[in-house]
Amino acid sequence: MNIFARFAQDESGATAIEYGLIAALISVVIIGAVAALGGNLQTVFGNINDCLTGVENAACAEE
Predict the structure, then answer these.
(1) How far apart are CA 26 and CA 18, in angstroms?
(2) What is the band of 63 on the pLDDT scale with cuts at 50, 70, 90?
(3) CB 3.0 to 4.6 Å from 50: which of 7, 19, 37, 55, for a disulfide?
(4) Which tens digit of pLDDT belongs to each residue from 8-43?
């Protein structure tokens, strides 16, 4: 019974688990942001590519 009481009171791994949960939450937020902005970035870089290769579109406004 003494072994179970010591095991129940041992909190040495709690900090590592908390850091793991925080890292997992941060990674989920980063993945969500990349997924949300990924389409917009693809459009922007596609427009830049079109302008550099000479394809005329509305994004290639000459000043």
Answers:
(1) 12
(2) very low
(3) 55
(4) 777 777 788 889 999 999 999 999 998 888 878 888
Q: Which of 41, 54, 26 is nearest to 62 (CA)?
A: 54
Supply the pTM of this predicted model: 0.52
> What single-letter amino acid sits at 16?
A
| Calpha distance 6→8 (Å, rounded) | 5
Q: Which two tokens stand for residue 50?
A: 């079109």
Burial of 19 (0-12, 13-18, 19+ CB in 10 A): exposed
For residue 31, is it within any domain? Answer: yes
Q: Tell me whether residue 1 is in a domain.
A: no
Note the pLDDT of residue 22. Answer: 96
